[in-house]
Design a protein that fits this description.
The protein is mostly helical. It has 23 helices and nine strands. It has a three-stranded antiparallel sheet, with no helix packed on it. Helix 7 (123-141) packs antiparallel against helix 10. The two termini are 28 Å apart.
Length: 667
């Protein structure tokens, strides 16, 4: 840039932000005056002077980070309560997968359009509208509890807690009374409401990715982008962590907080307050939409020439322009291959993360609350360290495109190694004598209890007299009476289908609980998982930089919106279905009530472990392969960290401002 133009740019920058009317008339055109008004915080004509100190990238980063917390918390909160709502409304993991894809249908419909038109509009207000929809979505997801109340079908007592205990004993007749109760009739309406809530949540996600992120990138220097994105991603990772921790806290409270059942959180019949977190997240999203409405169209961090203001003022856009812009994106090989790599990685990572709480519940026999707690703390500390470290290193070292893409390949290989090791760290399945596996299902009926007319409506585990064997229910253990059922440590007596230490059938008493469980694989599993997560999360900043720097500056919002739509079709929709099918395929005992199949009670530990880690290994392996192609094409990437003219303007800005001060005094 010629020195005269640099000086002119710096003087005009000072004029815009000076507030001196004489100086502005001297240096600014009518277009510049309009542009200056678009850098002020406020609504309409209400733009007080004290509010303008907040019109900065740092303030926006702070608010946007809180927005990202709620966005990240929603999906992991839903994942944390998934097994609970399956029990509450009696549906399979495949159905839960359908619920999880709902928030990805909206990006398919409007992702590219929001990115294209929202990118040229008032982006903070687009983001605020998305947060309002997110708030409504959370409140909609809590409606099934408000409409149907708490579930009583898994209790051993009736809903008023005052009548005689209702245990499933060994009896010659089994009543079918209750097949038209609310547990059956509430399932479909509850699924519809949860689906609608997730669908609305998708609109908030579109605004976050395709409008909010490019707005930040456009208002900071490229040289500072890695640090800003590293901070944002690190803070955003508190969102998924908080989502799991919130689910842990809520599931530790009974579904109806004002009542206390006769069993604890470790019991498979426990249903936690799954609805409570939706209320918290909904209120938080609504509050955060308010400061976003006050942000200006453009932040005043640097001067932008009139010809560069593609995102600073409304303009008429045609569908022809959209088609041409999309053609530019899909003719960009780095954009395409990196998008495919990210697609595969997201299927594997997201599928693994939504299944992890359930896996910990069953493989290591953790309660739903503690499983969410471990998942949340694991996500928080490991991935935050990785994102902050990755952003700081890129900011300081500024690796070339070849080294940056090569590092992504190395990260993929290390993560694959962690998955491979985790595949062999597990615990033994339940020891359940008198059962057989037939057609991938556990047959609980044997010669001893075949006349008891037992069902699998409720999993009420009993520990046998050998302190090792577990029985599905008092009925399957051949029990006919009980003691102290009002107590959580109930004793069932006269059980004729239990085994002693010599594996002989005896008539004895059993305890309503799991037998003592010892497995030393949980800590090694968590350690390997932590290391793999720290390493993999260091690549988040590099991933984003490749997307934003591989396209033309004016196409950044469109690129993010387009990827959001494509990932919704090819990643966000398939992964819940794939991992839901994987989870269901490992089920040994299903809940069966009134001729309908509900949630899974018992899984095949070994099959679950191999299927979960094996599928994730395949998806991440494909992602790593595609990143190798990006590495081979990396020579096409230029100018990742700075703009040629921006450094010149920055070096001369102070000098220009000093000259403007002198000019102001003369005027």
């Amino acid at each position: 840039m010629p020195k005269e133009e640099v000086r002119y740019s710096g003087q005009r920058l000072s004029a815009i932000h000076s507030g001196n009317e004489q100086l502005q008339r001297l240096w600014l055109s009518q277009e510049d005056v309009s542009y200056a008004g678009e850098t002020l915080c406020g609504l309409g004509n209400c733009k007080p002077h004290w509010l303008q100190r907040f019109a900065s990238p740092k303030t926006y980063l702070l608010i946007f980070s809180f927005v990202s917390l709620t966005q990240g918390a929603y999906i992991t909160y839903f994942a944390g309560i998934l097994s609970t709502i399956e029990k509450r409304f009696a549906f399979k993991s495949k159905t839960a997968g359908i619920l999880l894809i709902a928030d990805n249908i909206s990006p398919i419909i409007t992702g590219a359009l929001v990115g294209f038109y929202g990118g040229s509009g008032h982006r903070p207000r687009w983001l605020a509208a998305g947060m309002i929809l997110s708030s409504l979505s959370c409140l909609t997801s809590a409606l099934p509890y408000m409409v149907f109340g708490s579930g009583t079908h898994l209790r051993s007592k009736s809903s008023d807690f005052l009548t005689e205990p209702q245990a499933q004993f060994c009896t010659l007749k089994r009543s079918q009374e209750g097949c038209t109760t609310s547990v059956v009739s509430a399932t479909v309406p509850a699924i519809v409401l949860l689906f609608l809530g997730n669908f609305l949540q998708g609109f908030g996600a579109i605004a976050f990715y395709s409008v909010g992120t490019p707005y930040l990138d456009d208002n900071v220097r490229k040289n500072d982008s890695p640090l800003y994105f590293g901070t944002l991603f690190a803070l955003r990772l508190f969102g998924p962590a908080l989502g799991f921790l919130l689910s842990s806290a809520c599931l530790g409270v009974y579904e109806n907080p004002w009542t206390t059942p006769d069993f604890g959180p470790e019991d498979p019949r426990w249903i936690g307050a799954w609805w409570l977190g939706f209320v918290v997240l909904g209120c938080t999203s609504g509050v955060l939409s308010l400061p976003l409405l006050l942000f200006p169209r453009h932040l005043k961090h640097k001067e932008v020439m009139p010809s560069e203001r593609t995102n600073d003022r409304p303009k008429k856009l045609l569908l022809k322009d959209l088609s041409q812009a999309l053609l530019r994106l899909f003719k960009n090989p780095i954009f395409v291959w990196h998008g495919l790599a990210a697609n595969m990685v997201m299927i594997g990572i997201l599928g693994y993360m939504i299944t992890l709480p359930r896996y910990l519940e069953n493989q290591f026999r953790k309660s739903a609350s503690s499983a969410s707690f471990y998942t949340g703390t694991l996500t928080m500390f490991t991935m935050v360290v990785g994102n902050v470290g990755g952003g700081a290193v890129i900011k300081k070292v500024k690796p070339s495109p070849r080294y940056l893409t090569g590092y992504l390949v190395a990260v993929g290989i290390i993560t694959l190694g962690g998955l491979l090791a985790s595949m062999f760290l597990g615990c033994s399945s339940f020891y359940m004598p008198g059962t057989t596996v037939l057609n991938n299902r556990l047959n609980l009926v044997n010669q001893c209890n075949q006349n008891c007319n037992c069902t699998t409506e409720v999993f009420e585990p009993l520990c046998g007299p050998d302190n090792r064997a577990i029985y599905f229910s008092p009925c399957h253990a051949g029990c006919t009476s009980n003691e102290n059922l009002q107590d959580r440590d109930s004793i069932y007596t006269n059980c004729s289908c239990v085994h002693n230490h010599k594996k002989e059938l005896v008539i004895a008493s059993t305890t309503r609980s799991y037998c003592p469980f010892h497995c030393g694989m949980f800590v090694p599993y968590i350690i390997i998982l932590c290391v793999a997560k720290v390493v993999s999360s260091t690549a988040s900043v590099a991933d984003t930089l490749l997307i934003l720097r591989s396209v033309e500056p004016g196409d950044k919002s469109l690129a993010c919106g387009t990827l959001e739509a494509l990932w919704s079709v090819a990643a966000f929709i398939p992964y819940p279905m794939v991992y839901g099918s994987i989870t269901d395929s490992a089920c040994l005992v299903w809940e069966e009530r009134c001729g309908e199949t509900g949630n899974c009670w018992i899984y095949d530990y070994e099959k679950f472990r191999y299927y979960l880690h094996g599928a994730t290994f395949v998806f991440l392996g494909l992602g790593t392969f595609f990143e190798v192609i990006v590495f081979l094409l990396s020579s096409r990437l230029k100018n990742l960290y700075s703009e040629e003219d921006e450094n010149v303007v920055e070096n001369n800005e102070n000098k220009a401002r000093n000259e403007d001060i002198s000019l102001t005094q003369e005027t």
